[in-house]
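Sat 14:20. Reprocessing the chain from the morning session after the first attempt stalled halfway. Input below, unchanged.
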Amino acid sequence: MSDGEAANRLEGLRTAHARDQNSRSERISARIEDFLEVILELEDRDGAARVSDIANHLSVSRPTVAKMLARMAEDGWLHREPYRAVNLSPKGREHAYWMRKRHGVLVRFLKHLGTDDETAHFETEGIEHHLSESTVSAIAKLCERLEK
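Finished this time. Tokens:
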């Protein structure tokens, strides 16, 4: 490895970390996105999302879910009443639909690379929260070209 390659890698790391720090305040936490994703799917299936179902699908305790739902309601992601199922607010629903689209694009892309369905979904969960809209859009366009 040359000194120039090492310097380029170091500069790339520095700018990536600086960009990450600047965008953190604008980003939605991966945990909130996980909750939004599950709530949307439960709403589509059952009409609303119950604490016990959310806890089961995210493999967390009911008190953890209740605490997060309170925070999410304060931030405008959902509507909730004590001891009742929750529903996404328009803000929460809009972001959850975007996440559903993003998830589908990334699964399609990984399958084009030869990844099996189960692995594609698993690995998408690991990377989807870290990609910008422009990157997801570029991947979608690539998938469209590959599918023609």
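The chain has two domains: 30-89, 93-147.
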